[in-house]
């Protein structure tokens, strides 16, 4: 019998491009040894049971994939035969449901959907031969998920222990306008100098993802507290007590309150209301100060400790609007005059607008927001006794 929950195997944790450094920090902090890191994830050698803890704790991850077989396959028939040889009857409930996902780069495959179909057929045929009945299959990722990685002649088959993506953290019931993905927001915050013990000021908060993720980080609230269904739950041999024991650990580590300000402000009443409701779902609404105001009126504690972070509109890549140019200049003026002593950050996908900020960035940290190439610009907002911020020529 395949003891997948107790046998060590290759595990790939995926993430969006440029989140890998922050995913590595998270995985290492949880006590795991990284075998290999790459642009969109990391590789470990652990059991499927250990994947449960990772699924519940990781903020920057997308999927956690547990390898069950590596093989050579040149043609679709090769693929079918190798997949059909796996003991699926010991992994999938014959009366259950499964879906297939893939990452395919093979000259004999014109569409990944064809590869998915070959995998599905191989599993169904094997199950029918062994059990006399076939499981249902489709595109939903809320039950058992099988993942194929196939590049040239090298193939790996994984059990996707996550199912639905981990990049969405489960509390954002109202997305708002152009929301930042939760995993990206967590990565952005981890990239700042914020110590989780000082003020976090988020003017122009939109749907509030940055402020909410900050509150979750400051109070040790893990994403696993907001989700009750994962791919590992639908693999034969799953012990639910392991899951509930891990959730109890997560609950016990939560810090109930903080002694510093987390501020979310926006000119739009609707945006602030969306932020408030999402924060309430996350259980952190009492930790955030909500303000409906122009960003220049955002209350900033005068002790100069903490971070100020903007995620403004990016506008068009070409032909920047004069209104946004003025907004970016005002953001620079606000940080320079109202945020002395803070670390200032602006997340933008528009380098032309970034030039209008009027401050010289100490760092330009690379991210992607979807497919858009973005930068998190860091500004050192010195106190009056120190050197004033440099301005672009």
From TrEMBL:
Residues 11-65 form the RlmL ferredoxin-like domain. It holds the Pfam family UPF0020. Signal peptide: none annotated. It comes from the Bacteria. Residues 170-376 form the Ribosomal RNA large subunit methyltransferase K/L-like methyltransferase domain. Residues 76-136 form the THUMP domain. GO terms for molecular function: RNA binding; rRNA (guanine-N2-)-methyltransferase activity; rRNA (guanine-N7-)-methyltransferase activity. Keywords: Methyltransferase, Transferase. InterPro entries: RlmKL-like_Mtase, RlmL_1st, SAM-dependent_MTases_sf, THUMP_dom. This is Putative N6-adenine-specific DNA methylase. It comes from Pedobacter suwonensis.
